[in-house]
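Tip: read the tokens left to right.
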């Protein structure tokens, strides 16, 4: 009898590692979007970055709930307002600055993932 045993354990480890590394790079892209002077603002200077105190930028968290899943969070109480925009009770409107959308639209996840795999094929 002839047997063939295929073990993809190492392949799965390489895939997970490349995914995690790609997400770390994406995290840097989110930070770049926050720090870039690309966001329209109602008063000068405009365009500007999203940094006032730096808390939002430094609050970024990345977790991996399970293989192949990444969760980014910015756990400051005003993150949603900055991202989506808001209207004050006096009617003043502050535009949203959706840094996640901007970064995702300008970051080629499949290309970066492929590059990570090619640069580190043995996961060492």
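Filled-in amino acids:
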């Amino acid at each position: 009898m002839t047997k063939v045993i295929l073990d993809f354990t190492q392949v799965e480890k390489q895939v997970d590692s490349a995914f995690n590394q790609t997400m770390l790079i994406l995290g840097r892209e989110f930070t770049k979007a926050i720090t870039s002077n690309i966001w329209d603002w109602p008063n000068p200077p405009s365009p500007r970055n999203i940094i006032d105190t730096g808390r939002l930028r430094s609050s970024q968290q990345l977790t991996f709930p399970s293989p192949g899943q990444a969760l980014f969070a910015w756990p400051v109480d005003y993150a949603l307002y900055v991202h989506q925009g808001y209207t004050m009770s006096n009617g003043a409107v502050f535009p949203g600055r959706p840094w996640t959308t901007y970064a995702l639209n300008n970051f080629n996840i499949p290309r970066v993932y492929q590059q990570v795999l090619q640069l580190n094929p043995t996961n060492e």
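The longest strand covers residues 61-63. The CA atoms of residues 10 and 24 lie 21 Å apart.
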